[in-house]
Specification:
Distance between the termini: 34 Å
Length: 480
């Protein structure tokens, strides 16, 4: 006769085997599509401190949708919807409008699990009314664009959701030199974004550069590559100063990959933590320009060439290990981050500076930018200011983790997340919200745009809270 402990052990073993077989039975479903969100021209462009009106399109701005679902038979276990947009940020209420348009349209879809991110192209339409001084007629207004794009995106999500099918996923790691830290450091410890590196007092580049590329690949049940997500710690702002609609380097990347793998391929650009990065050289500029000229390449073509080469490197690994039953977990929660304090000195400085812009309509962006700091100071003094509330998404997909944030997050925070994460690879997606920089302590000491109070709702302390909360969620998802 068996002892009770042995019987209990046998029962627990059977339960574990049953749980394992149930988890193993989970099937990944995938849907993907792309939609053109280029509005009627002319249209105002955002991303600079001056008004720009685009009358031509160099490359269309698109929204690229990926739907993931895990099923056990007919039972849906988990899902996520990713939308990568050729926009500067996710602002102007566009995320809320997309969710509103999807309400009650797709049974089984949790609107909270719709994630939107921007590639940060500076040659995409403006989304906030009053950001620039614009003509009242003859130009697509920001609110018009938001309504137009939100409808197109909602329609694309419905299409991808309705067409989801059994699929497989693979992940890989590649390398591409795309980003350079854009903050020059000078004698005395001060820094300047895009500062001269040939100046006599130049002492180096301020921070780290991440040249790795995290890649996800998705195949349908016919073994066709239908989607890929490419995570690069760099914003898409190689041609940021132009006055034409342009998706920046993501357009030639998509075109190159589609040419080789088929028009059915949807390419999602995920900008990693890159608040202090730029896809243009900070030094050796003449040598870089010469090599592009000798190879007869534009800057966008050169960047695309590097990204595609790095993607192929990652794909060579991903294609060898395809997973139809990768575990999918998706947590959504709201976290609160402390605001950067507006000092008395900053208040005094900005009060003086803002007077110079009061009667100049061409300076409305700068005036509003600085006025927001004075408004924050008033709330701070009145005791009515509140922490920054952020929707944090963390996901586990097999061996990899994905985490989102609203900001232009300095690379050091992303490096912490990736290094301390238990996942084999960790994808950090920035600009899933309205933006603003989150600098590290070193940058705040150096000063300059991106690390001054006008640029920062959330400072280094808030960045560290974001890092710890993100890692806490990822760690929970990887517990046995």
């Amino acid at each position: 006769m068996y002892s009770r402990p042995l019987v209990r052990f046998a029962c627990l073993t059977l339960l574990c085997l049953f749980a394992t077989s149930t988890a193993d039975a989970a099937q990944l479903y995938v849907g993907a599509t792309s939609t053109d969100i280029t509005p009627k021209l002319p249209v105002s462009l955002t991303g600079q401190m001056r008004t720009r009106i685009a009358k031509t399109v160099e490359s269309p701005v698109t929204a690229n949708v990926l739907v993931l679902e895990s099923r056990d038979g007919d039972k849906s276990l988990e899902h996520a919807v990713f939308v990568s947009c050729d926009l500067v940020c996710i602002r102007g209420g566009i995320h809320e409008k997309v969710r509103e348009k999807l309400k009650d349209q797709l049974p089984g879809l949790s609107l909270q699990k719709v994630i939107m991110n921007a590639t940060h192209t500076h040659t995409a339409p403006t989304m906030i009314e009053g950001r620039y001084t614009l003509p009242k007629t003859g130009v697509t207004q920001p609110a018009e664009f938001v309504e137009f794009a939100a409808q197109k995106i909602a329609d694309a999500i419905q299409k991808a959701w309705n067409e989801r099918q059994p699929g497989q996923v693979g992940w890989g790691l590649g390398h591409a030199v795309i980003a350079q830290n854009r903050r020059a450091l000078y004698e005395g410890g001060w820094a300047k974004m895009y500062g001269s590196t040939s100046a006599k007092d130049f002492r180096g580049i301020e921070g780290y550069e991440d040249h790795t590329m995290e890649v996800l690949c998705f195949w349908n049940d016919k073994d066709e590559l239908i989607a890929t997500a490419v995570n690069i710690a760099c914003p898409a702002q190689a041609v940021e100063g132009r006055s034409t609609v342009n998706a920046d380097f993501w357009h030639p990347v998509r075109e190159a990959l589609k040419k080789k793998y088929g028009d059915q391929l949807t390419v999602l650009g995920w900008a990693g933590a890159a608040g202090d990065q730029v896809p243009r050289p900070m030094y050796r500029k003449a040598a870089e320009a010469r090599m592009m000229q000798l190879r007869n390449l534009t800057l966008l073509e050169e960047l695309s060439r590097r990204i595609v080469a790095g993607w192929e490197e990652a794909y060579a690994g991903a294609v060898q290990e395809k997973h139809a039953d990768a575990l999918l977990k998706h947590e959504v929660r709201t976290i609160e981050l402390p605001l950067q304090t507006v000092s008395e000195a900053d208040h005094e400085r900005i009060t003086k500076e803002i007077k110079a812009y009061a009667d100049d309509p061409s300076k409305v962006w700068i005036k509003n930018w600085k006025q927001r700091v004075l408004d924050r100071y008033d709330e701070q003094q009145a005791g009515t200011s509140r922490p920054y509330s952020m929707e944090l998404h963390t996901l586990r997909l097999g061996d990899i983790a994905i985490a989102t944030n609203d900001f232009e997050l300095f690379t050091d925070f992303g490096t912490q997340m990736k290094s301390r994460s238990p996942a084999l690879q960790t994808f950090v997606i920035q600009l899933c919200g309205p933006g603003s920089y989150v600098p590290n302590e070193r940058a705040v000491r150096g000063g300059s745009y991106s690390a001054i109070i006008e640029s920062n709702l959330v400072g280094p302390a808030g960045g560290q809270v974001l890092t710890e909360e993100t890692l806490k969620s990822i760690n929970a998802q990887f517990k046995k």
